[in-house]
Design brief:
The chain is of the alpha+beta class and 609 residues long. Helix content is 46%, strand content 19%. The protein contains 20 helices and 20 strands. The strands form four sheets. Strands 13, 14, 15, 16, 17, 18, 19 and 20 form an eight-stranded mixed sheet that branches. Strands 4-10-9-8-11-12 form a six-stranded mixed sheet. The radius of gyration is 36 Å and the shape is flat.
Amino acid sequence: MSGLNTSHNHEIKSKVQSLPAKTGVYQFLDAAGKIIYVGKAKNLRARVSSYFRIDSKRSGKLYVMVKKIADIETIVVESELDALLLENNLIKKYQPRYNVMLKDDKTFPWICIKNEPFPRIFPTRNVVKDGSKYYGPYASVRMMNSLLELVRQLFQYRTCRLQLTPENIKAGKFKVCLEYHIGNCKGPCEGKQTEEDYNNTLKQVEEIIKGNLSLVVKQLKTLMREYSEAMEFEKAQAVKEKIDLLEHYQSRSTVVNPRIDNVDVFSVISDEKNGYVNFLKVVNGAIVHSHTMELNKKLDETDGELLELGIGELRPKFQSNSKEIIVPFKPEFDIPDVKTTVPKKGDKKELLELSERNAKYFRLETKKRKELVDPKRHTQRILKNIKSDLNLPELPEYIECFDNSNTFGKFPVAAMVVFRDTKPSKKEYRLFNIRSVDTPDDYASMEEVVYRRYKRLVEENRPLPQLIVVDGGKGQLSAAAKALKKLNILQQVSLIGIAKRLEEIYRVGDSVPLFLDKKSETLRVIQHLRDEAHRFGITHHRKRREKGTLMSELPEIKGIGEKTVEMLLKHFKSVKRIKEAGFEDLEKVVGKSKAAILRQYMEQKNRNE
């Protein structure tokens, strides 16, 4: 324990050293005795010790949390699964400040088979411990209703709330209703259906709800054969229609090989702030449940930690007892008697990819909803992230970005794009033809354009951007800084360069580049600026190059002089119109012979291109 941070008192160090090397759960408490973090470990002593080792790479949030630890409590358990479940329960109970927040607290619907004579089947959001059977929860109300509709089409069962006790039925207290007359119920209220027959129907309903469609189809096919052999063809036809309905429902649900049975699929994706774990329940190759949960990250948790939390939360929630889980990588914790599969190809790999697509779609939809509710708040959050990541003195609500384009030094141009509140402001885009540089010198071009841009803003007393971005590394950044220094405004703005090779960020006065998280919103905004400037500049450069090429070539054509070129431009106004002009239009301006020469040249040029 020599690596322990000396800022922690002797009592904490002694407690860490005395922890058991057993599987369990640990709780960090602050000076007030409040639980601030809960975690699980295969080896409690080794895991807890790791928090107190000096590590320059650890995040600031983790460092702050460790400084607040005043006491440690542990719970030793029998298995890794027990630790996973206990950790999950303690997080939900105490909601520690530094733990991932499980954003999965809304009430989902269930299908209930009521504990009563001739049980009813109905959807509910309230699970009551009264002996009734509950199936779910269903993340999609549409999926649940679709399943109930299928069951209703297949089987006859009551929907009334009558107390169908044997005494009440025998006493003749009830009369059959419209549901009986239209064939949706067999009339148990008048004793027209036995409880045994009704319960046999419920068994098939339960199998369908569980996703075991093939078992029900098999039973129905046996019944259909029995009816056929007994010459009861109308009943056989009714059963056949049920089989067709089930097989159609199953064909719509099957996504992979039907032999993949009773499997759980988990995938995880994350960004700087949140993680998303998707769960698919697969029975006979058909997805019977799909759900994505969102987790708020607190200590830069890894995808592995998020996946373990998701598995620990979702398997109990959906009452899964599957003997196989499909995951993108092997979790640190094993689940007893459950096989862990990390597929590389085939049907199981397709299932995993489907799960990942669901997680990405959920993340996208979640972000869209947040933006629709409060777009300004969303923008402010991104701006705060950029300010923090780049260590800026103020929010970069106004950003300008520069990019150079040239062809071997010819036709050099530069583009400047403007972003307001992280969004392009296209009416403020500007293009620059480079004046002072004849050779391919990106640094000199950058210096000229930046100087010209901000000289004008200073002279016109217009506000400067909070952030200037240049496309390039140290060289382009130094050139831009030189221009700003000439104007005495280098200290008034923030200036960065983005290099293409590794997307590293260079800052003035800092020789070490900054590497942002590839998933970070800050990097995405900077990349958007850079790409937009490149797109805008390359479009203008292409037009200028085409114009310059044609204008330099025309006087070289035998029979076409400079005066002819001037006449053409005066009449057609642009090079594009000259290229598109027909023989007759050219003839009106320069005569028949020169028009023929020009058309022949244009046609030859087009064939070569």
